Structures are given as C-alpha cells and as structure tokens.
Amino acid sequence: MAVLLTGGAGFIGSHTCVELLNANEEVVILDNFSNSKPDVLDKIRTITGKNFRFYEVDLLDRDGVEKVFAENDIEAVIHFAGLKAVGESVQKPLEYYHNNITGTLILCDVMRKHNCKNIVFSSSATVYGSPKSVPIKEDFPLSTTNPYGSTKLMLEQILSDVFVSDNDWCVTLLRYFNPIGAHKSGLLGENPNGIPNNLMPYICQVADGRLEKLNVFGNDYPTHDGTGVRDYIHVVDLANGHLKALIHSRKEKGVHIFNLGTGVGYSVLDIVKAFEKANNVKVPYVIAPRRAGDIAECYADATKALEVLGWKTQYDIEQMCKDSWNFIVTNRK
Ligand code: NAD
Ligand code: UFG
Predict the structure, then answer these.
(1) N or C, where is the chain less crowded by C-beta within 10 Å?
(2) Residue nearest to atom 4 of ligand 1 (CA)
(3) Residues 59, 32 share a domain
(4) Could you tell me if residue 296 is left (phi over 0), alpha (psi between -120 and 50 degrees) or otherwise beta?
(5) Pair (237, 174) in one structural domain
C-alpha cells in the first residue's frame, strides 16, 4: 500500500516526501516538472536513504494517471500538483482553471475507479479572502480575489461534493499559510524561476546580490509597523502536518478542514530584521506602493490542528530565515 504524492517534486511535496519516508510510509511520486526539476528526486533519496517510485506524468493525461494506479496499490493521495502564482493566474485564467481543476477531476475519477477514496488536498489561506479579523479560524467566511484562489475554493467545494455523494471518502483540506524555510541539509528548498513574487525568495536574492533591493509593498496598513503581516511557517513543520493529517484520515472518514500555520504574525519589516540578524547579512529595502490584492493581516488560529491532529509547529522565525538562506548558499552556482 502506497501514498501517491502528486506534485511531489515541488517545494512542499518534496519536504513532505522526506517526512513520509522517514516515517516508513511507502511513497509514489507523480509530477510533470512544470515547476520543479528531476534532481530533487535524488536529493530526497540522499536525505532519507530510501527509495520510491516516480512517474513523469501530467495530471491532464488520464492514461498516464491510470497507469500509476494500475501499477501501484495506492491507498491515499496527497494532492500538491497545481499552478500557484497569483499574478500569473490573473493573466492566464484558462490555464490555471484547466490545470488545477481539470487535473483534479481526472485524478479523483481515476481514484474512484481504483477504489482509492482518501485525498489530502493542498488548499490555501487565500480562500479566506480579506478576513474580517485575525486569527483566522476554519469556519470563517470564504471568498477569493484571483483565479488561483478561485481554483482552491472551487476544488474545496468539488471535493466536499464528492464526499456527499459517497461517504466512503475521506477528504482533508489543508489550508496552508505562508511556507518558507528549507530542509536543513540545504538540498531541498524553494527555487522559483525568474524574479520571485513571494517575500522570502525575494529577500534571499537581495541578500545574495542578485537583486538590488527589496520593495516593501506599503507601510500604511493598520499593523504594528504599517507593513503587511503574515503567518510564516517552516516547510518541514508543514510537511509534518501532512503526515499527521494522513494518519488521521485513515481513522475518520468525512471532510476535515485544518489551518496549517503557526498562529503568529510577522510584518515584512520583522522578517527583514529577523533575516539580517539570523544570517548576518544586509537586506536593503525601499518602501513601495501597496501591491494590488494584498491584505493587511493574515494569520492562523491553528488550535484545531493541535487538538485533532496533535500537530504543532517546532521551528521559529530565526530557524526559518537560517534555513532559507542556507539553501541559497548551498546551491550557489
Ligand atoms: P510547487 O510549484 O513547488 O509544486 C507543485 C508541483 O506540482 C510542481 O513540482 C509542478 O511541477 C507540479 N505540477 C503542477 N501541475 C501539474 C500537473 N498538471 N501534473 C503533474 N504535476 C504538476 O508548489 P508548492 O509551493 O510546493 O505548492 C504545492 C501546493 O500547495 C500547490 O497546490 C499550491 O497551490 C499549494 N499552496 C502553496 C503555497 C505556497 O506559498 N507555496 C501556499 C498555499 C497553498
Ligand atoms: N511583500 C513585499 N515585497 C515583495 C513580496 C512580498 O513587501 O517583494 C509582502 C507582501 O505585500 C505581503 C508579504 O510580503 O505583505 C507576503 O507576501 P507573499 O507574496 O510572500 O505572500 P502572500 O501572503 O501574498 O501569498 C502567499 C502565496 C499565496 C497563498 C498565501 C497563503 O503566494 O499563494 O500566501 O497565505 F495563497
């Protein structure tokens, strides 16, 4: 019996694969490398000393997905595969809806055919839209402001409908906050193509001298220093949340929704200062206009994941900054 990780070569999937292999789970990875590289697979093997099967398959290729299920006894799926760039999704809505929604429909249909009815889905705090207050609980109202977020919200609905149609399913919706950090080995981490959109990869490239300065998007938000506040979570803590959710999913059918965050919010300037202190580097910045679509504050109430899954985060912001930077330094060309 194996657990299939779609998108398992990606940032969160690769770290989750390590934690699953370390917990003696049998893993199969499916990825089309649209946003990852094949060398990640050997790095996972190096870190864990364990092996797993890999399929270079696009979720939109039904025959390819069929083959994975025909050749393996897949008991559960952790479904990471998806396109995730908010700005790009506004420019390419059809590509985003097709990849994320159609890909998931094909996956679920093939799962049903093979009587595999356990899915853990990568959702996002983006489904809370502009929250009316913080910390955010799982039962807060949901809304989205861009096609990427809409794919997450629609897929939450689709997967919930699948459960309604057949109560034999277990659907776990994990709403991630802001994953950063990297594996302590420096072998796995986040390596975006081009100029990064997200704060931590951008800071890393500034500190590395590849970008001149950070643009801090707005300092007039109603936060302690005027800059946007987010719930940054170490990717290894997030990966462990998947292991806990997987264990829980085997015990209890239904639709289960969990925030995966630390419950603590840091502003952009907090992160800049923490990064400079943790790594003894400089991160020059300027205050720039607000970025369209950004909200002032977003952090989790993560008590449900603690109470139900027994999951809590271990790594603090200093470690997140150290590990993010270690990945850059280790992988300098
Ligand atoms: P990532 O891009 O590093 O990983 C996604 C992986 O899926 C990549 O390896 C990519 O090649 C693969 N993929 C995409 N479309 C595919 C397809 N059609 N068929 C097969 N493989 C495909 O992203 P990540 O940061 O690891 O995110 C994983 C999941 O978590 C995504 O669904 C993302 O939307 C969600 N999420 C991420 C964040 C974040 O900030 N990183 C926050 C909330 C939610
Ligand atoms: N920021 C800057 N300068 C930059 C980049 C970001 O000031 O160059 C600020 C943003 O304005 C925001 C904070 O840093 O206040 C975090 O921005 P990110 O782009 O790193 O993250 P977001 O919170 O905007 O969004 C991320 C993912 C989404 C996901 C969401 C979940 O990109 O896909 O986290 O909370 F849905």
Answers:
(1) C
(2) 10
(3) yes
(4) alpha
(5) yes
Amino acid identity, residue 184? K
Residue 282 lies in a domain: yes
> Is 148 a known active-site residue?
yes
202 lines ligand 2 (CB under 6 A): yes
Among candidate residues 148, 176, 202, 232, the one labeled active-site is 148
Local confidence pLDDT in tens for the 333 residues of the chain: 999 999 999 999 999 999 999 999 999 999 999 999 999 999 999 999 999 999 999 999 999 999 999 999 999 999 999 999 999 999 999 999 999 999 999 999 999 999 999 999 999 999 999 999 999 999 999 999 999 999 999 999 999 999 999 999 999 999 999 999 999 999 999 988 789 999 999 999 999 999 999 999 999 999 999 999 999 999 999 999 999 999 999 999 999 999 999 999 999 999 999 999 999 999 999 999 999 999 999 999 999 999 999 999 999 999 999 999 999 999 986
- 17 plus 68 within the same structural domain: yes
DSSP H helical segments within 10-166, as ranges? Answer: 11-22, 39-48, 62-71, 86-91, 93-96, 103-113, 147-165
Q: Is the overall model pTM greater than 0.85, yes or no?
A: yes
Q: Which protein residue's CA is at the shortest distance from atom 29 of ligand 2?
A: 126
Count of the separate structural domains present in the chain: 2
304 shares a domain with 280: no
Domain membership of residue 190 (yes or no) is no
Buried b (16+ CB within 10 A) or exposed e, 102-111: ebbbbbbebb
Would residue 104 count as lying in a domain? yes
